[in-house]
């Protein structure tokens, strides 16, 4: 039986068969101002000739799946002939859901997967559990890891021990890629050009020019200097979707501080916005969000765990999600953790080669695991027992008690680290 792995994120869906490679596709529908009557789904975004003023129709709100009409249309597109040509009579599916998902959403998802699409078996789990499975598969000697998953809606900090998520250690920050893009739109609209309707373009600007500062106050001083002494400032050429299809940064030698450019080029000049926007991941209070930063949430999460586990969590902090791709994020987070962690404990922050698809790759490994048949729910199981069959078949099921295997292997692991 073929296994389809679907990491169903709030902004992108990572999908592919377990024997093949992954495809990253927008998990939403679009309408453009030039063709208001037509709705584009998922990767049909490429068909829109003028994406300026693009209107997103998202199935997720605040991290939870609430618009089933949009989600069905996206899934119909992904599962249909244009994309993966899924044969539901001979396919199993691994699909992700948010942490602390509502039971009503879970029940609806079960009904759609088994009753509408008629998959032969399904596994509904958290993306972090798949990432943890991937991590422990690549590092079998490790007992613990702490996942930082910074996505579109939220940033989650989740401790795992032997692939079991420690529920009491989960921390959620209401800071994600959507908030960062919206804040950048507000700054640019206030200082230079009204771009509040240009979510698609400004999201690209954010990905192209933003970075996490290693010395925030020093970079702030540099960004206020004049002329060539200002090494922070960047000039970004906005797309016009005729001659310029995609925006780009001007090379440093072509930047003109007089502000005179080629006719037809529309320029955004970005200075402290480049590092002030990603700084919200570490200091949400800068814009009035009274929450911990990522580094503080990590320390708080680890402190809630048994003391003998602390060293293993600090040494195995794993970054996943699109926001971890900001240049300098890993180095800054490691430095911030080093300043907060006990001096005798080593700190190591690890960034996978592809943090966006790390959970999907974990699902791919799980699909080929001999344990897969034990955790998956078959269509027959569901028809006989209903929604509650999932309570006994869940990957990364939380455990409030200290795992017994941690105590048994503690001596060996301490010797390994020393």
Whole-number average pLDDT?
A: 87
Content of β-strand:
15-25%
- Rg calc: 23 Å
- Biggest β-sheet: count, sense, barrel? 6 strands, mixed
Instruction: Determine and state the CATH class of the largest domain.
Output: Alpha Beta
| Count of beta strands | 20
Can you tell me the residue ranges where pLDDT is under 50 for at least 5 consecutive residues? 395-418
What is the CATH superfamily label of the largest domain? Answer: ATPase, nucleotide binding domain
Please supply descriptive tags for the structure shown above.
alpha+beta; 20% strand; 418 residues; Actin, Chain A, domain 4; 6-stranded mixed β-sheet; 14 helices; Nucleotidyltransferase, domain 5
Brief overview:
This is Actin-related protein 6. The protein is of the alpha+beta class.
Describe the overall structure.
By secondary structure, the chain is α+β, with helices and mostly antiparallel strands. It folds into three domains: 2-126 and 357-392, Nucleotidyltransferase, domain 5; 133-175 and 286-354 and 403-417, ATPase, nucleotide binding domain (Nucleotidyltransferase, domain 5, 2-Layer Sandwich), CATH 3.30.420; 177-278, Actin, Chain A, domain 4, CATH 3.90.640.10. The protein has 14 helices and 20 strands. Strands 3-2-1-9-10-20 form a six-stranded mixed sheet, sandwiched between helices. Strands 11, 12, 13, 14, 18 and 19 form a six-stranded mixed sheet that branches. Helix 3 packs across helix 11 (358-367) and helix 8 (294-303) crosses helix 10. The longest helix is centred in the middle third of the chain and has 15 residues, at 177-191. The protein is globular. The model is unreliable at 395-418 (pLDDT under 50).
């Amino acid at each position: 039986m073929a296994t389809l792995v679907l990491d169903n994120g709030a902004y992108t869906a990572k999908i592919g068969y377990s024997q093949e490679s992954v495809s990253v596709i927008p998990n939403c529908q679009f309408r453009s101002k030039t063709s208001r009557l037509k709705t584009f789904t998922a990767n049909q975004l490429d068909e829109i000739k003028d994406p300026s003023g693009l209107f997103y129709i998202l199935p997720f709100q605040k991290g939870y799946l609430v618009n089933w009409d949009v989600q069905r249309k996206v899934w119909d597109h992904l599962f249909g002939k244009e994309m993966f040509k899924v044969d539901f009579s001979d396919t199993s599916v691994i699909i992700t859901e948010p942490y602390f998902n509502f039971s009503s959403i879970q029940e609806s998802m079960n009904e759609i997967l088994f009753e509408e699409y008629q998959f032969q078996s399904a596994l509904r789990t958290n993306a972090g559990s798949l990432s943890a499975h991937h991590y422990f598969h690549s590092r079998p000697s490790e007992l613990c890891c702490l996942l930082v998953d910074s996505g579109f809606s939220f940033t989650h900090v989740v401790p795992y021990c032997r692939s079991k998520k420690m529920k009491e250690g989960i921390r959620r920050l209401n800071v994600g890629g959507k908030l960062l893009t919206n804040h950048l739109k507000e700054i640019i609209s206030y200082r230079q050009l009204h771009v509040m309707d240009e979510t698609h373009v400004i999201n690209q600007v954010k990905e192209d020019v933003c970075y996490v500062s290693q010395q925030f106050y020093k970079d702030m001083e540099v960004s206020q200097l004049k002329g060539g002494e200002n090494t922070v400032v960047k000039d970004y050429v906005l797309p016009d979707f005729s001659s310029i299809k995609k925006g780009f940064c001007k090379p440093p030698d072509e930047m003109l501080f007089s502000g005179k450019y080629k006719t037809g080029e529309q320029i955004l000049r970005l200075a402290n916005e480049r590092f002030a926007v990603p700084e919200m991941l570490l200091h949400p209070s800068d814009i009035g969000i009274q929450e911990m930063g990522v580094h503080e949430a990590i320390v708080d999460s680890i402190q809630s765990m048994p003391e003998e586990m602390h060293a293993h969590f600090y040494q195995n902090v794993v970054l996943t999600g699109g926001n971890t791709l900001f240049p300098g994020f890993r180095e800054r987070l490691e430095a911030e953790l080093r300043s907060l962690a006990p001096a005798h404990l080593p700190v190591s922050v690890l960034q996978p080669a592809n943090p966006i698809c790390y959970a999907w790759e974990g699902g791919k490994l799980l699909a080929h695991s001999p344990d897969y048949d034990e955790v998956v729910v078959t269509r027959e199981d569901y028809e006989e027992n209903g929604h509650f069959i999932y309570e006994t078949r869940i990957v990364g099921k939380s455990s409030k008690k200290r795992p017994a295997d941690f105590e048994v292997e503690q001596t060996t692991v301490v010797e390994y680290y020393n």
